[in-house]
Amino acid sequence: MPTDAAGRGLSDVATSDAALRRYLHGLPGVDAVGLEARAAGLGTRSIKTTAKAYAIDLAISMIDLTTLEGADTPGKVRALCAKGARPDPGDRSVPRVAAVCVYSDMAATAKRALAEAGAAEVNVASVATAFPSGRAALSVKLADTREAVAAGADEIDMVIDRGAFLSGRYLQVFEEIQAVREACGRPGGEAAHLKVIFENGELSTYDNIRRASWLAMLAGADFIKTSTGKVAVNATPPNTLLMMEAVRDFRAATGRQVGVKPAGGIRTAKDAVKYLVMVNETLGDDWLSPDWFRFGASSLLNDLLMQRQKLTTGRYSGPDYVTVD
User: Fold this and answer.
1) Any coiled-coil ranges, and where (predicted)?
2) Confidence band, pLDDT 50/70/90 cuts, at residue 312
3) Rg (the chain; Cα; Å)
4) C-alpha to C-alpha distances, 296 to 23, 78, 187, 265, nearest whole angstrom
5) Would you call 83 a catalytic residue per the annotation?
6) pTM for the whole structure
7) Which is the catalytic residue, given 225, 249, 271, 274?
8) Which fold has domain 23-313?
């Protein structure tokens, strides 16, 4: 039976709200000053030009290219898929993105567009479960998830009910994650991967982010994700570092590896490289892959492409070099 660092069993943690509360509130408290200092220190690391070129291509390959607007149309989604399949139409050496992330009603459109572009290996990620609020009946959340999976979604980005979590109804959140994970199954095929979004800006404290990380991982999340991109505070270096430390410690405790996805507010190549340095220093090579680390972004790809061309040609391209998302 796997145990955590303190030797406590994990198999019977989620038997009641009280048991989950005891476990989650028994996790070590977060030293906020120390966490922020570590994140700031990692952000000052410099890398050589050759390493930067590698990091830019790696970051491109880790992007979940995202459009999550009420005004999304099939045409916009097809254009986004074309960009994800061929980020730079003039340079075939540019890697494809990891996924295109859309609302569930656009999942089928995205799946077809990627297949037509010859980029079936680019995943379709669909937000579900009453995104971005997470406030709906469980039956609605599960129907949303099943519809996205049936439409071809390879990944489901669910959002937790923060009201339930902050009220201490941990078992409700745990069981919802488990139920959504089950709804990710595909008859006769591979289940869609499940990313669990916390909305860190609404969890208020670092301790809550650590608790949400462990709760989601115990419930079976394949990835844990910082935010929806729809609130004032989204991914930050400290809150992402805290989640990285959680997945590192969870693998040490259980042997199971879980991915991390910072989303919202990461717009420049410089920011992306800082996050990759953080992954390398905190988690190591095992997580330096699109299978285990993603960026949720819409505009980040543009800056990565411009910085890539600067490294190749020695000059920045004009403002019309990349498409406007």
Assistant:
1) none
2) confident
3) 19
4) 30, 18, 28, 9
5) no
6) 0.93
7) 225
8) TIM Barrel (3.20.20)
